[in-house]
Amino acid sequence: MPNDVRKVVLDWMPPALLRAVRRIGVANSVWSGDYPSWLDAARDTSGYDAEIILEKVRNATLAVKRGEAVYERDGVVFDEIEYSWPALSALLWVASRNQGKLHVLDFGGALGSSYFQNRRFLSGITNLRWNVVEQPHFVAVGNQEVADGRLRFFGSIDDCLKEERPSVMLLSSALQYLESPHNFLRDVRGKFPFIIVDLTPVHTHDRDRLTVQKVPAHIYPASYRCWVFSEKKLLATLEEGYRLVESFDCALGQELATEGVSARYRGYVLEAGMSRSVLS
Fold it and tell me: Is residue 279 part of a domain?
């Protein structure tokens, strides 16, 4: 797989839309179709205005950073934080395995939404660094206006690895939007001691299904390509060089609106190791 695949992926991925699905759009989004190729699915997808999205996310994130809002997602501020408790627990567990050190690579992390979401519980970790890999225009705004002593932004995984040595990669609502997610996982294999996967759609069938996900118009008028994974196949790839520590149901999306197949959001915690393993 080409080394620049992560940059190519992020040039296409609409980060705020991904976050929108996590907070608001799960109940109302629709996953349709069963496409034979990435190109075929593209014909039934629409574009989006990245600058409008960026400005909404920027304003909301800065409000959270200044203490004017408690929580931000999708460019909307909230007065109550919605936690992904299993993912947060996994982050704290990783820190406990590394003498209190937690260096995160948050792939597709917008302007640090997950960082600000969890900072109350991570504030006691003195050796904390949160590295977001995002599209170039998000990286520019992030480093100029949002970054602090712990939070930084990079345009690719390789750029991040030149300056940082993250102990864990966070893939939250990200894998399903990559053209070749299994190859992506193989490409990053061994580069991170731990991987946390969250909010990833799976079903019980034996093959992955390529769909088009339509976001409700009141969020953004958009649709984009999205995989619904065979959980068996996804776990087989995740466990190539990693040990499955735990799997979990996500708080959102336990009954996704997919045509002809029952799907739900799942998450996984993995630790680097040479052989596949059962839960322990």
Answer: no
